[in-house]
# Entry
Amino acid sequence: MTIKFSDLGLSQPVMQALDMQGYDTPTPIQAQAIPAVLEGRDLLGIAQTGTGKTAAFMLPSIDNLRKADNQIPFKSCRMLVLAPTRELAGQIAQSAKDYGALAGLKVHSIVGGTSVNKDRNKLHRGTDILVATPGRLLDLIDQKAFNLSGLEVLVLDEADQMLDLGFIHALRRIRELAPADRQTLFFSATMPKQIKELVSGYCNNPVQVSVTPESTTAERIDQYLFMVQANEKQSLLEMILSGRHPVPGEFERVLIFTRTKHGADRVVKKLGQVGIAANAIHGNKSQPQRQRALDEFKRAKVPVLVATDVAARGIDIPGVSHVINYELPNVPEQYVHRIGRTARAGADGVAIAFCAEDERAYLKDISKQTDAEFDRLPLPENFRAVVEGVGPTKRAHPNQTKMKRVKPKPRGASADMRGGVKSDGPPKKKHPNRKGKPSGTGQGGKPGGRPQGNRGGKPGGRPGGKPGGRPGGGRSFQKRRSGGGGGQRRGGGASRQG
Ligand SMILES: Nc1ncnc2c1ncn2[C@@H]1O[C@H](COP(=O)(O)OP(=O)(O)OP(=O)(O)O)[C@@H](O)[C@H]1O
Ligand SMILES: [Mg+2]
# Structure
């Protein structure tokens, strides 16, 4: 039996907001988590990327806040959501506004890289829901401009990252300051064992909801692999993006991950030299630069974005067709999150990994600790000669590599949860678990390969490598107008955000 939102005990204002969002069926994590959160239980929720964890904690919390109807506490908040990056905090705050559009709750977000004074002023009278990065929150607490005395619900989104090295000190302080009788909710697509052990220190007999085996890559992502020397990666990337070496899937937006900020800048610069416009987003960019890069990517004005792990977690941009791991992450869970920027809300996606000789150990770890299965793709013909500049393939003329802005493709009904990109109007969203995957029973990963997607060309699903890729591959990218945190060891690097 398909579980409906109306079965979950949500209030009318929340149900109406969901209707406005075009959601009609809860995802498995929503179906399982919402009733427990409404009961006031502490909860650890694990589900794959892009399956609606934000609504799983936000919808019932909005209702709980409404029901309790407590006054907004002075210089404090009733619900605090902590997120690892500024962009993610902003996105969650927007979701809280969308989901709570008719609930009459006050929502604010505070993140580093913006004016502290403005934050101090806006929180003076308190708020119902606050979404924050830990650094900025503690700044305000240290200045006595904010406190946690009124806290009813604490949410750690990307919980494993929040409990890891980069944030653990901040989290311990926040735990000390928060009332002991609060409700605590943890959500992530990944939860390494050693981090899971820390969860109990933050909550009280939590319900655990694991929709899929922990730390698995989203089912709808086709994963490919190039074995390529480190100094040849840039040439390979250029050939792929310019369409001279087609890869499976049709380009719409391409997100490229590097391990370092410097590496991201270098890739952007070199792409620019061959007429492929791209932006970079990482921890050394100013907040306005980061925001602009993300906006231009969302609007597909510059549909190539090169990022460090600052963009790996939680970011929800419809129409990311490809994620390219230019360098593999050294933390396997990070791979799950990076590639999870594609194939969201029931859509399909392609992930391509570039693996150099010295990254083989990372690749092995990724395969072992996530369920990633790669189809290996061959390097272009005459690749070595092209790299050395003596091959027959000329550099593309800049005009040739410009991508034409494309209208979002109508997707097959079965794959369409968003009905295209956001700006495209609000068609009804469908349940992300499509045919063959009964709702509410997301357990157990891939049942016998993925359902037939709408991208075609990969007969029989995943098994069987198919060099040459699917028809209609990356060629289309060539026609479009192109455009664009530090790598982190577990919990470190760019993750630490004010
Ligand atoms: N029940 C639903 N019906 C239709 N669309 C939904 C539903 N729930 C969520 N979505 C959409 O799915 C997308 C992904 O949601 P969300 O960002 O919450 O995923 P997530 O599980 O938190 O992913 P990640 O692990 O990457 O953070 C969003 O665009 C959201 O609007
Ligand atoms: Mg999320």
